[in-house]
Amino acid sequence: MEDHLPQRVRVERRSVSEEESRRANGPDWDRYADEYQATHGGFLGDTGFVWGPEGLTEDDAGVLGDVDGRDVLEVGSGAGQCSRWVRVHGGRSYGIDLSARQLQHSKRIDEESGIAVPSVRGTATALPYAGASFDVVFCSFGAMQFIADLEAAVGEVARVLRPGGRFAFSVTHPTRWSFPDDPSEAGLTATSSYWDRTPYVEVDDDSGHVSYVEHHRTLGDWIDVLARHDFRIVALVEPEWPEGHDRVWGGWSGVRGRLTPGTALFAADLAS
Ligand SMILES: C[S@@+](CC[C@H](N)C(=O)[O-])C[C@H]1O[C@@H](n2cnc3c(N)ncnc32)[C@H](O)[C@@H]1O
Asked: How far is the CA of 143 from the centre of ligand 1 (A)?
C-alpha cells in the first residue's frame, strides 16, 4: 500500500473491475519496480524465499512441502527470488507476472545469479498453461490481493494444478484492512469495518485515473473461495513479528507487528 505511493495520488475506497485493476496495477508495478527492488531486494535475497515483511522464510515455514523434482508455478513472481529458491532446492519453477519491468529485474538477477527462472508476462486470471501442469502453485504477496475476479484466479490455479497439488499464498492479513496503513501508533486504531470489502484505490490527481488497487477479503471469504474450488486448507500461518526485527515496510513495523498480525499465509491441497 502506502510504501509505493508516488506524488499526487489520493487514496479512496471504491469498487473496481478486474480490467480496471489490471490496467492500473501493471503500469504501477512498471513504475515502481526499480525502487521496489532497490529498497527490498536485499531483504528478499536473490535466491531467498520470504513470505512477507515479518521475514518468515520458506525454510522455516515449510508450507510448500518438498519441491525437489516438482513442477512449480509462482503467480505474481516479480523478480523471481522465491522461484530461484525453489530451483536451488531442486524444483522446476516458472514465473508469471503482470509487470514487464519486474520481469526485466527477474532476467537481470537470473544472469547475475546464474539461476534462471523461465518467466512470462500475463495475469493470474488467465494462466497460459495447460491443465494439470504443476504440482505446486504459490504467490508470496503476489497477485492474489491485486485481483478483482478472485473466482477466476483461484479457478485458474485449480485448473493448472495436478490432483492433490498444493496451493500456498500470502496476503495482507485480513484484519489489517480495518486499520490505517500506517506503521506508527496511528495504525493501531481501527477506523473502518473489517467487513467492508470495498477495494483500496489510489487515484492519480492529475488524470483522475485509478493508478493502483488492492482488494480486501475477510478470512471467511478466503476459506469460502478455496472450498468452492475443491481445496482443503492444510495451514493458515500468521507470522509473529520476530524479536529484534526493526524493518519498516509500508504499513508493517514492529510497533504494529508486536500487537496485530500483518500477514496471512494459506496452504491448501486440491482434491485428489
Ligand atoms: C509485492 S510483489 C510480490 C513479488 C515477489 N513475491 C516479491 O516478494 O517481490 C507483487 C507482484 O504481483 C504482480 N501482480 C499484480 N497483479 C497481478 C496479476 N493480476 N497477475 C500477475 N501478477 C500480478 C506485480 O506486478 C508484482 O510483481
From this structure: 5
Q: Scan for cell 501493471, then name that residue.
A: 26
Cell of 130: 495447460
Q: Whose CA is nearest to atom 17 of ligand 1?
A: 143
The alpha carbon torsion through 242, 49, 96, 228 (nearest 10 deg) reads -60
The Cα angle at residue 234 between residues 153 and 265, in degrees rounded to 5: 60
Beta bridge partners of 97: 121
CA 255 vs CA 62, 235, 239, 264: distances in Å = 27, 26, 15, 18
Pocket lining: 102 vs ligand 1, CB cutoff 6 Å: yes
- Rounded to whole angstroms, the Cα distance separating 11 from 28 reads 15
Q: Are 86 and 93 in contact (CB under 8 A)?
A: yes
Q: Is 25 in the pocket of ligand 1 (CB under 6 A)?
A: yes
Residues 6 or more apart from 106 whose CB is under 8 A from it?
Answer: 77, 78, 79, 80, 95, 97, 117, 119
- Contact status, residue 41 vs residue 79, Cβ threshold 8 Å: yes
Q: What letters, b where the CB count within 10 A reaches 16 and e where it falls short, cover 220-256?
A: eebbebbeebebeeeeebebebeeeeeeebbbbbbbb
147 lines ligand 1 (CB under 6 A): yes
Q: What is the pLDDT of residues 215-228, one digit of tens each?
A: 999 999 999 999 99
Cell of 33: 519496480
Express as a percent the part of the chain with pLDDT over 70.
97
Burial label for 10, CB within 10 Å (0-12, 13-18, 19+), is: exposed
pLDDT tens by residue, 245-267: 999 999 999 999 999 999 999 99
pLDDT value of position 187: 96
